[in-house]
Write a structure and sequence with these properties.
147 residues; FAD/NAD(P)-binding domain-containing protein; three-stranded antiparallel sheet; alpha/beta; FAD/NAD(P)-binding domain
Amino acid sequence: MTSRVVVLGAGHAGVEAAASLRKAGFDGAVTLVGEEDALPYQRPPLSKDYLAGTQDSPLPLRGEGFYAGQDVELRTGERVTAIDRTARRLILRDGPPIGYDHLILALGARPRPCRSSTQASTGCATCGPYTTATNYAAGWLPAPRWS
């Protein structure tokens, strides 16, 4: 029986973990699970080029064909609510659990929000996922002023 590796987190570390497994010759199942609906994308250009209007959409970490070509199951838009270590499965907010033999946690970090009484007047803003940046760009949220 082949083993199944699940990589939780579809940011740079998660995508590279999945790619490294294939490059090293791992022939079992590889599943990459991410909370955002978008194809995994580069974070730094999001808060710079995308918001400045010099880039139309986030730059993907790997092209869409990479995942199929490397036999990596990409599961986007999946929020994991718990890890059942005894049963070796991820519990999802919606949908059936995802079983694993090995789990890689590549969860990254979340931006720290500005906490200041002068936050609104200084233009302090937190740029998190693609959807937040899109809301800034569309004018649905006040645009941050980058110094």
